[in-house]
Amino acid sequence: MVHVVTGETLPFSSAWARVDALHTTLTQLVLDGADLTRIADEVSGVLDLGFAVTTSDGRVTASGGTEGAVQRLLEDQGLLDDTGRIRVERGSPEGVELGAGELRVLRIGAGGADLGRLVCVRLDGSIGDDDAHALERVTTVAALVITREQAVAAVEDKYRGDFLRDVFLGRAGEPGFVVEHATSYGWDLTRPVLVVCAELDPAPDEEPVSQTQRRAWQERFSRAWRSVSRDLGPGIPSADFSSEVVTLLPVDPGGSTAPVALVERAVHEVAGDRGGGRRSFSVGVSRVATTQVDLPTAYAQARRAVEIGRKVHGPRSTTYFDQLGIHRLLALVPDGAEIKAFVRDVLGPLADDTEEAADLRATLQVLLDTNFNVAEAARLQFFHYNTMRYRVGKLERLLGPLSRDPHLRLDVSVALRALDVTR
To answer: Where is the CdaR GGDEF-like domain (predicted)?
Structure first.
């Protein structure tokens, strides 16, 4: 332990000697295999700071010092969201006044990668230049530890992901072996679960994204799901499948927490307040899988739910397979080309991807929703009654006697829903 007398202004040489001594101590800890918690305890003890290492979006991974007092101060100042994340985007390397004290947030990076944030709080007084120099050294040490931990975790996650993928493909082995192997990863596959498939939403077209950046987002997204899963309870499997994160949330029929509430809690805690660079994502949720045999089907349901949910409801959607309605039946059609052919046969030119076709489809949907009440449809679309009558005539010339044939209206209604999932 490096001892220091706080509250005194040290000579320049003494200050740098203290910084070097701290750096040497921390380097030795890294060589001895110390984790971030040990580093945090050492730094907070030497510099007399409340100290935390967080992900780049503010999720605490290690902390030291007077943790309870620091947390209360951050909460009082509005710097903690309701999931417990620190709002690191409101901090600054130069320091921000925090009550009677000061907050500093420093970026931890290596090789162009954003690895996290160093959050430092002094409850009573400012963080001096000497401490600031020391903290810059600490970010380097933290980057070494995080890089090492991520390298180990990447190998472990690959094996976990490969195993869970084999379970979904039904080729992981006999049930007894699967349970035993899952237990070695700390997972429990003996209980009913909901398969939750989460995907980052595509970046806007105007936002150029490199493959390295995309991978960094995915890794951070996967770590968030694993962290939240650990908080929700023991033995919850969560794995990164490169473009999606799959988590098996347990269902307790006699428990106090409803399955939907558990999903909502998980999604809420992963999303946080979208500060600090968090990306929006969409989620698909399967039916309850009561046994291992049900898992492949449940995974397919979750995949289909997230795919359809994003197309129908847009980004940031959470879609349950049981709530897909007619889309649930469409999801069971194995040949997507057959669905597209049905849409084209029923809608004709209204299936085109043009502004005129989209406008007519909107009018057609309103007419179907109002059971072809022309006056009500005109009011909802802010059209004159005669304009709506003209549109009805145009639609019937294109599609047939919609106002008189209920079976045709059913076909058209299904085709409009099918069009949502074929684009």
So the answer is: 175-308
